[in-house]
């Protein structure tokens, strides 16, 4: 923080020796610095108190730190330029396929068309995967939809809720480390991912 202050102070000192035309350009360049400062303040939020003077609870600090890492829970949403995405819940079961045991994660997902230009969106371009953070293995998902036309032409402001299944051959005994990722070419999700809690084998 001190380094940023010193840099800004130096910039102001240099700017005072320039012409009026140069000063107007410096003002235009100051705006991105303000945005950077706001982002830095957000990152430091877990160590600060509330505006009313009350200290943040450990739960609140943990929530902010979790979301800073891009981790969301059931019912929490991520909004981009095209999509408002939510993972509602997830279930887990195992089944036999020949001599192999296959784990099946079924996740309930809701995606709303969040475009502000009132154009349709095609949800089929979104890719789904789950990752076992302990082993690093990823598994692609299969969207379960009964109306392909509605799925590929969602009007602005409308949403669709559907299931996505993930097949895991020879799954680990501990399925507490799975996270769901989404990927889009038109509205990238970055490192946003949802923790799949309470994955209990429904067959046992």
The chain-level mean pLDDT equals 79
Low-confidence stretches: 1-48
CATH level-4 homologous superfamily of the largest domain: Protein of unknown function DUF4354
Helices and strands, in N-to-C order? Answer: HHHEEEEEEHEEE
Helical content stands at: 25-40%
Largest sheet: 9 strands, mixed
The CATH class of the largest domain is identified as Mainly Beta
**What is the CATH topology assignment of the largest domain?**
Immunoglobulin-like
CATH architecture of the largest domain: Sandwich
**Global structural class:** alpha+beta
Strand content: 25-35%
N-C termini distance: 54 Å
User: What is the topology, as strand order, of the major beta sheet?
Assistant: 1-9-8-5-6-7-4-3-2
Tell me the total number of β-strands: 9
Radius of gyration (Å): 23 Å
Q: Could you please describe the fold and organization of this structure?
A:
- This protein is of the alpha+beta class and 204 residues long.
- It folds into two domains: 2-64, no CATH class; 74-195, Protein of unknown function DUF4354 (Immunoglobulin-like), CATH 2.60.40.
- The chain contains four helices and nine strands; from the N terminus they run H-H-H-E-E-E-E-E-E-H-E-E-E.
- It has helices spanning 2-15, 20-43, 58-68, 148-152, and strands spanning 71-72, 77-79, 83-97, 100-113, 127-132, 138-144, 159-169, 178-183, 193-195.
- Residues 1-48 have low confidence and may be disordered.
């Amino acid at each position: 923080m001190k380094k940023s202050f010193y840099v800004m102070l130096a910039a102001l000192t240099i700017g005072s020796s320039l012409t009026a035309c140069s000063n107007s350009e410096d003002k235009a360049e100051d705006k991105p610095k303000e945005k950077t400062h706001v982002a830095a303040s957000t990152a430091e939020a877990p160590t600060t108190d509330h505006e009313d003077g009350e200290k943040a609870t450990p739960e609140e600090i943990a929530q902010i730190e979790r979301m800073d890492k891009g981790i969301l829970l059931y019912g929490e949403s991520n909004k981009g330029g095209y999509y408002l995405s939510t993972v509602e819940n997830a279930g887990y079961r195992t089944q036999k396929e020949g001599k192999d045991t296959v784990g099946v994660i079924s996740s309930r997902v809701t995606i709303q068309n969040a475009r502000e230009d009132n154009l349709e969106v095609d949800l089929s371009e979104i890719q789904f995967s789950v990752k076992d953070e302990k082993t690093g293995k990823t598994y692609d998902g299969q969207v379960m939809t009964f109306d392909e036309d509605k799925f590929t032409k969602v009007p602005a402001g409308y949403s669709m809720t559907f299931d996505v299944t993930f097949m895991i051959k020879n799954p680990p005994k501990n399925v507490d480390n799975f996270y769901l990722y989404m990927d889009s070419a038109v509205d990238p999700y970055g490192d946003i991912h949802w923790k799949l809690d309470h994955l209990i084998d429904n067959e046992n």
